[in-house]
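agent> Task received from the user: take the single chain below, predict its 3D structure, and emit structure tokens. No templates, no multimer pairing.
agent> Plan: (1) validate residues, (2) run structure prediction, (3) serialize to tokens, (4) report one or two observations.
agent> Step 1 OK, no nonstandard residues flagged.
tool_call: predict_structure(input=
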Amino acid sequence: MYRPSKEEQLSFYHPDLILSRMFGEDNFYHLFREKCDLFIKDVDFTPLYCPDNGRPAASPAILFKALILQRLFDLSDRKLEEACRYNLRFKYILGLELDDMGFDHSIFGRFRDRLLQSEKHKEAFFKLLELLVDEGLVKEKEKQRVDSTHIIANVAVPAATELIRQGVRQCLIEMKRKDHAVFLQTRQTLTELVHKYLSGKMAKKQMEQVDETKRRQRLTAVVRDARELLAFLGKQDNLHPAVEYRRTILQRLLYENVMPDDENGGYREQEESHPDRIISAVDPEARHGAKSATKKFTNLKVTPGNVNDAEPLVDMVKETKEETGLSPEKMLADGVYGTGENRRALREENCQLVAPPHPKATAKDLANGKFIHNPQEETVACPVGITTAHKTYNAESESWIYSFPKEACNNYSLKQDCTKNKNGRTISVNKYYQEQMEALEYSRSEEYKAEIRQRCPIEGKGK
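)
tool_result: status=success, residues=463
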């Protein structure tokens, strides 16, 4: 239940009374609090709570600001709980009295769920965006970039020791399931290793906190176990494909995560993260992504993995325009977004989509100019001058299929180079032909080349 807080006299422990000299008007935390207070208010969250039933809830505005601080300082929920209790900066921004115990860490997860279920997070996002526009940090007509990224699966990103432990264990499990004969040989040859990873102390994640020396010793031990298992499997013939796959994954985990420690002997973690690093030996296809920690975002949408990346683009542009008034003149994107449907819809929003032409959107002989389509007369002409208006519509490909009469084609010696279809040549003209041909022509210009280069920073590969 949400109950509005009553106006009360500030106590002597309130940060506004005793921390004001510490956080002056030019101080970052003072400015941060001032800006947050402009658009984060308890009243905006009232639809998330029952008005007359249940225990009074903690201030949703304070919880929301705490989540912003969590992102800013890259804290876990437990670390955020600790910061709200002991950190003067957090108490000042959140308006918590010095003797306030703050929040239990579990409340942050429940509050996030409440935000996501109600779409309130999107409303707060657009309020923040409006603030950026008002401050002049985002221009109404400036070019925008669009891209997609996989987000982390239901796994945490473990350290190298845990990843390789997972890899060894998964390899043994797969061997036991799919290649029992090899498993029996492995158990006979590497008895201690098999027991340790299937039923011993390495069958579960090591939760004990250890110092740096102990951690490197633990890493070295698990790497040596992995190398011993790989050496044994390398001598086996005709491994089951599932076991061979797990062996390859284990090799990759070693390559991506560890390197020899020449100074202390043994092994240590790689200094730089591999660009396509496996983050789970249980689910090797899982990935995490972060396009940027510093660039400005004007909209975001989470979609299932089977939704085409290009699908949400137009709705996101319209939503941003409706909520904030931002109306970009150009949208820079990669080829997957360059569908005719997107180009037409964005043009109606007075926005030009700058993206490579979709490779399969226009028939090759139309793109290279051998066949000419006349949209006004709805005809297609071939290289020898034969023109056809006979067409049928294919709803699945959203294209008109133009057919040339076989009698006319048979009279020309070029037929063998043109088509092997005994019924004559056909040409497919997509319903977005005009948009795709304009995009193809624009892609040959110097202006396009300069524009598309400006898209690189969203990938983290350019400046």
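agent> Step 4: summary for the user.
Residues 160-269 form one domain.
agent> Done.
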